[in-house]
Records
---
Amino acid sequence: MIENYVIITNNLQVTTERPDLKLLDFRVGQIISADVMDIIESGMVALQIIPPIAKRESVQGKLIAAHTDIHLSEGDRISLKVIGTGKEIKFKFLGIENKENKITDEDSTENVAVNTLLDKLEKKLATLSNSKLNASDLHEIKQLFSKIPDNLKTIYPELKSLERLLPQIEQISPHSLKIQVDDSGILLETKLKNLLTSDEGLIKLLETPNELITQRLNDLTNVAMKAATSFKEDTPKLLNIIESLKLDQTYNPKDNVSLYIALDKIEELLHQTISFDINTPPSKIQETIEELTVQARELLTLIKHHDRSERLDELERNLSAIIQKADKPLVELNEKRADIIKHVIDSDMKVVLLKARNILKSDEVVELLKHTDIATSHTITISFAHTLTHSIDKLINNIEYYQTLSRMHDMVFTFLPFSWKELKDGELIFKKNKYHTKRSYTCDINLDLLSIGKVSISITVMEGEFFVTFKAETAKTKELIGLAKEELERGFASAGLKLKAFNIGLEEKIDFSKARVEKGLDIVA
């Protein structure tokens, strides 16, 4: 049957209104195909969605009544791109596919590239379909890590680093949980991209309550400010020299265009150094100093081709001094920045696991294990190393499963990176509302606990106000949550956070797999 969905086109944008709020499971950015099943009347057609891989259960055979001003014929297969979801699902009309399944549209190259990427991700996810670990698996791996002999951990610090992975729930605080999630391996590539390409990455790190990172960032800022102060001291003198040269008729711009352009560039950079203060990002200071030295070298080359004067000689001496003075702070700034990046890398779970796996595959480790309490026999020694390596592989695959899932759905999926006997399963989902006029962020927390069953929590912050919703599978669990309501409200108040709404609901069956993906957080991983 044709369900009561209506499609209206406007400037090649197809909007699917859903008056009954029935859900078609699409993700933003997804490219879908639909067959034109029938031309019902003028401007109205019946479309059947062609389900993509891994979506067959949710969209198989869905028929949509479509009002359209685009000329379509029965038997056409059209391509649509999902550009928004929510109360409405929004599509962009991409074109009509030909028999070779190619889109007859000017954007075909881009669409094929998108489809190719999605296909690769879907195939990757299929290979990792059994890689998702539950809380029991994580606890067992944690126990196995604790059995690594001390002499091995002394020789290989990378193996000792396994100890801090998957801490017990009793060790978790709000601050440490944030650090654990940040370092769970899911966001590694994104963090490195931010660190290497913009100040945003450093700013985000400053928000992380990690004393080691904070100290390293403070060190970087201090070195940058020392460099900035040094250049600010020399700036007035250099500006005076440049100004006097410009006023000197001997260096008329008509005859010395290159020289004047070079002087202007130096002058502009020197004025930037005057504005440096404690709030100036270290990367901005470093970028300016590096550019200043480049321009200074170019200006020195130009000076050699001009008639010398006393002011020009003075400028040459000062430029040479600036270049020499820049070397040390630039080296220090690069070292400090590299130190921060190294610390971020070394703190990441995926990196720790990859290093440990490489070590455990070496013959030296098997030989060392022969001289430990584990080595009751050669077979057991090899078996322990193999079991340990296999467990590390499982953890790495678990991380890659969530990375792939995050990339496919254009949001962040992660696991709860700690050991908790009470927890059967759990997940965190962070979202950013892309299409609402008011910017909002949501964190969904799904827990399956041995004693009280499944609980789903959704926390949304919008314009400084928090909206919290709990859903429980049993009336008893709902009642327990209700008893803790006042404590939660006090917690928000003591933290200076405004709790706008608090709701507790009962849901007969909570399905974690039905995560909403329409408001995903952009991620490159």
---
Amino acid sequence: MPSKHAGFTALFFVAVGCGLLWVCPGAPGGSAIGPVSGSGELMALQEEPSTPEPADEGGETPAGEEPDEETKTPPTEQPQPTPGPNQFLVARRPFRPELAQKGMLCPVNVRGIRLSMKEYGGYLTIQQTVPSGTRVEADGVLFTIDDKTIDKNLRDALYRADSTKKDLEQSRIRLETDQAGSNKDIEQARRRKTYAAEDLENYKTIEWPLAKDRSENGIRWQEASLADAQTELDQLEEMYKASELSGKTKEIVLERARRDIELRKNELGFARRSSAFDEEKERPRYLANYETELNAATIDLQLLETRTAMSIDDLKQTIAWQEMEVVKAEESLANLTADRAAMTAKSPIAGSVVHGDLVARIAAGWPGSPAPHECFAAGMNVQDEQVVLTVYTNEKYRVRLVVAEESWRLVRKGMEVKVRLTAIPGKQFHGRVVELADMPDCTDNNRHAFSAIVELEETDMLFRPGLEACAEYALDEVPDALVVPAHLVSDKGGRNFCLVVVDGANKEREIFVGGRRGDEIWIAGGLEEGDILVPKQ
């Protein structure tokens, strides 16, 4: 059993799953495994040796202290197990893991050329296109779309725009005319109401009192005239009594005077009856007629104003709607014109042409994913927003990598990388990790993996998108690693296992791989120094 004050104890931090494990081979009973926190990078820590308290002369323990167990019993070396034939003894030694990952070459400057229609919704049929691999200049024609249908749509849109503008202009003229005519009618209705109000007021304050005064004055005149005639008759009768005129003449004069009085009495009666009739019937009827005219003029004015306002509002709403229709028609015409121009696709940059979506094809070409192939020719239909061609330049390239889960913690941004291409043997390129996914976003042999981007410092005239690349990382040496041959480790559904000899029997144990180099594997967890392994059966 090792002493608690023994030399150096090495601590290794390894990532297992989503947490970290520490392995302490110097702990009693073998290695102790437990969670620790940290950045996930491989680290080696050393514990400073402790200095034992000096003993009293004669080897006695200081007073008040119990003798240490190690002082009582000197430590004895534990015998190392001896592996048998076809067995392997797990031991610690320095190890520099190698990390190589496959990926694909991808240009940095990539422009996907897609049809983005604003208005046109018909078929998009390719009329002609440049072949894949063609070198084009900036503003060079890449492909054209059949424009027969969109030209018809353009003519229809132009007709709709012109027709809508004419309808709008006619509505504005009608609004101006109707407003002028309605204002004239309203003005006449207002004058009618004003005259009716004046007539009513005049009748009440002038005509009716004047007629009443005239009637009363006529009655008084009739009464006075009758009184005068009666006085004259009385005087004639007195005069004829004393006169010696013949009876016949006298009777004639008196008869005339009496007849005149009778007529005057009748006239007075007529005047009184006429005055009563005017007061009771005629004047109220005139008053009602004036009031009715005023009410009718008021109602007609209100109706005319209301109907005019409604008619004007309807026309204004129609004009507003037509104005929107004009805007929509003009926008539709402008969009169709832009769509018509877009059907002749031109290259935004000088570069090489690849049919289809180059970025998507490279991404789909990762291990475990299908690699689609797209080739467009005359007569084929394409969809709106579909990437038809891709234009790229050879000025700068990247390598898109797939990092396995067990290697993810060993890769970090800024690491230098050596890149080799299968298509260019014997040549090495240099790069640096510029992107590393924080979560698994791809697969490697049906296992979760992380994508990484390495930006290359050099370029080559032989570079082509999609070439297979291999990135090699320069990792730090692990001074005290458990290293076993690769043939002793088996992979079962993404989990690694070894056969360990325990009490004479072979037992399968899950282990955690920290790194590889050639035919050797660094075991970051699951085994202890001194374990004996046997080959998998």
---
Amino acid sequence: MNLRTIALGIVGVLICVVLIFLGFFIYSTSSSGSSPPPSEFSVLSSDVAGSEAYIVYNYWGSGNLTLLSSDLEPQKTVVVLSRSDSISDLSASKIYDQLKSLESYGYVISISNSSVLPRDSIVIVPTGAMPQNLLLQFQTRPKNVSLVYFGDPNLLISSGGTVRKNWFDSLNSSLKPQISVFSEDSFTNQNFSLPLFLLYQNWSLRNSKTLTLLSNKKDTSSLEFLGGRYLRVIYSFTDGKKGIYDSKQLRVVSPSISFDPSSIYPNEKTSLSFALNKSVGIPRISVSKEGSEIFTEALSPVTEENVVVKRLDFPDAGSYVVRVFDSSGVLYSGILHVNNLEVRHIGQNGIAYKFLILRDGVPLESSEVFVSLDNSTSPKKFYVSGGVLTVDAQLPKGKTSFNFQIGRQSVSVEVENNSEPLLDFYLKYGLPVGLIVLLVYLAARLSKSPSYRLRFVDSITYVRKEQPISSSEAITAFNNARKDMKLDSFPITPSEFSFGLKRHVTGGADVTDGNVEALLKDLVQKGLLQTYRNYYQLKTEGSVRQNVLLRLVREKLIENGISFQERLGVFVTPNYDLSFGNIKSSKKVLVVIEDKRDIHSAYSGLSSKETALLNLKIQNGLLSFVPIDELDDYL
């Protein structure tokens, strides 16, 4: 073989290598450059059931979904007036530039110098004083028109010039909700966003709720209508896709069905109760999920008023629309939400296995959970705190199923243990370690009987020990736990108290959860501690309910990255104040309550004038009652 042949062979091999490399590079580049399909959102139907408005929709992607209840027909046409008789320095072009961001939601923004009031639109009037001819048109034909006025409510531009007149107070009360009045300085105020004000149409807002979209599915979402007539749905995805769906006018046409319990998990039963008068034909009950009927049943004919109680179970998580009807139409309706329970293994520390418990994608604040391993029929009770559940278990090497039960709902999570079991370790390395363990155990058993015995696991030998602790020592550990975690005098959870015991009493060893709960319960019975929502504080530290809610609000603000200042129990943020009853503020106020039943107590003791003022703030979006468990939806 000559040198020429060898050279040609080498060149050929090099060319093949280069071609293979180029092919791989092109393939990897095209693969890495591929992007997920664009997000999609479509509303299939909207309606009212009981006191709630709801939508059935399909979506793909991740983002946020906001539902709004409005008593005026929502608009997406905005006209900014530019008038030569304006006495304001606020220019129409400056407002137009700020509102351009709304076009991504389907709004149509324009500037007009016409003296004729446009119909079916939101009209921005930045004139400093209200034009008289515009006001007269609004009073005579205000259909589907809302005014947003920047100026003085006591100034009027007439044919003879600007005059001082309190034109707003002289308006018919039915028209006032359609005019929003702001000072000229409000436009540049960092706490005010005109695009958001128009997007939410705050002047007619009755209620709102924001949800997280994290999947690809058909779903149903609902909102307490609170006297609204229209439902606006705003969607915004992480890939930039945005849009709005506005419903036709919806009417509450039937009383609500009562569900007991009102919150269940799959395969749990709930009781539906309603009263039927003499029916027209055979009454029926119907259950629909995501727009499709999944159950229907005929009820017995009613010849006189009769209370009907029906027990039903629901196999899957989601929102169900329940209706009772006869030949005359719908008699009762309501929406029942069945919670989705999810458990994730998030880590372990020695024999302590940690799990995140989620209900509808949100960490479960507190609950009892029964846990068993594999096929065991003897579950043990544990407690969730802040969505995290810690289970102490000595697992064999390999895979083990943790079985969790909350109510009647069961979830299994498989966990793999790659370390050797303790018994195998002893057998492999001899009995000396076992003898040492036995001596430690016997020494602990022979110790003097204490006021309490803390059971904990030694991190080296994995042997359960007991240690005496008195009531005063327990309270000292309680205060030290708060001090270590910089919680001041806030109530703490059992797991946080366990942290204090671990650091100051057991020398770093974990205390078993059941032992901590028993100790806290005993301290409560002795009058040393108070408890609420599985949080604990000293008996002398005031209302435990109020203090727990204060802590929950504080932590939710921090978790959502919202800056705030705390002033006498009121959390002051840049956009709104959060309080527990104080509604005196120039900004929007979120009044935090335990649940919606507390709304009625907020009205007790108010005069008719104070009640009207409270209702006006709610109607104008300046005040909302927010149950603590729904606060994340508002932040």
---
Amino acid sequence: MESSFKPKLDSNYSYYVLSVLLVVYIFNFLDRQIIAILANDIREDLGISLSDLGFLYGTAFAIFYSIVGIPLAKLADTWHRNYLISGGVAIWSLMTAASGLMRSFVGLAICRIGVGIGESSASPAAYSLLSDYFSTNVKTTVYSIYSSGIYIGGGIGIFLGGWIADSWNNIYPIAEQAPFQLAGWQIAFISVGLPGLLIALLVLTIKEPIRGHSEGIKIEKEERPFFEAGKVLSGILPISSLVSLVYKKEKSPEIYYQIFMTFGVISLFTIMSYLTGDLLQWGAFGLGLFTLLSWIQTVKLNDPIAFSLGFKSKTIIFSMIGFPLISFMGYAVSAFLPAYFIETFEVTKTIAGRNLGLQSAIFGFFGLLTGGLFSDYLRKKYLNGRIYVGIFAVVTSPISIILALQSKDLFTFYVFHIIWSYVSTLWVGLCVATVTDMVLPRMRAMISAFWILMASVVGLSLGPYSIGKLADYFISLDYSSANSISYSIQIWCSVFIISLIALILAAKYLPEEENSKVERARLLGEQI
């Protein structure tokens, strides 16, 4: 049954909804980030490389997160968003707990895939829900508060993960003598995964609001939401997408594009696998890239108005280049900095998790909050106010992380790590607010999914792996693991240059495109 609940915008209940969704996002990143503090133990027990760890942290999770996220974004635009988020929380919590039972690289990779599938349900539905509970005046701040779950959850994850693993290993220094022969890193996965089932129940207390009411735009009810989501999935997967085009008797250029795209992705997979020897990495990345391109084609064929507003917007395109490249480095640093810190300063996982975790959680939260508040303030004076804050983050982030990695003592490292934690989070909330403001309400979950896809395919699947792969090269030259990670991160900071150029170009086109979006939609046939 379609909801008839019309909440008062910016009310106390609105902030209750925001609080619940923030808790969801905290658990989302707690379960996702915990692997970083456990990296050295996992690497030793399973006998894997740094690039393998990058695959587990990023690619195995990100690609299936992206693929399943596309039909779930469609479902978020047409079905009960509270039910969707609750089911996803239950799935990823169970798969996180199951990670603790794995004793092989392949088994852990499968669980990480499961975590990615579960977590793909959350953000598109959450962003859509929040847009119906809050007014435009506070949207960036609200999105920033929600997005702070990234850093609060990540900080708590590495703190709890390190403390649980160290505590277990101190009690049972020989894993064979521990209950069920479980090592500390396995117990950590189990301990943080199972409580998520209670959060899944908490989400069901959120009331589903009338979609689009916050802007007075009526959204037509979708009679078969799961069928439509299934159509979206079949239209983006290899082979089924081509079959779907032929069955629908689409025009030849669309079929040729699909064939050309397939061979292009296969060629990329073949070349990169040959050059690196990493079949799993490039097979998964190729699948994710194919899905992204195929999905864009599907949107073009099924919803040409949404395609025109979303994928022909220069502002959105440049934003989707600039911001994901920041996440490329953000995810990479999150994946490997704990391991670097533990080896460089010879501290325990508990100390590393506590100090790095608290710094990331506290200053990451304030960075997101400041970024949101300052963006909303500048937005009142300049349409490009959000982009200006993003540009500031792009300029200051590489300086702070490079200085942190070159620090010779703990105090100096902490100072620059705190600065990194703050400035590298300023942009997160404003990115989503920027791109969702460029489209109509019925397209918000779709464009949020596009952002998640780009952040996943470009940022999460390539960032940790690339840093790990270059670090493996330095290790082959007899550098220590810590120095190898440090050199790799510093070299890859060069991607911030591309990000800066892209955001400057986004700022150039944003004012005109945002002011004309409704008129352009009407000209394309949208009934507004």
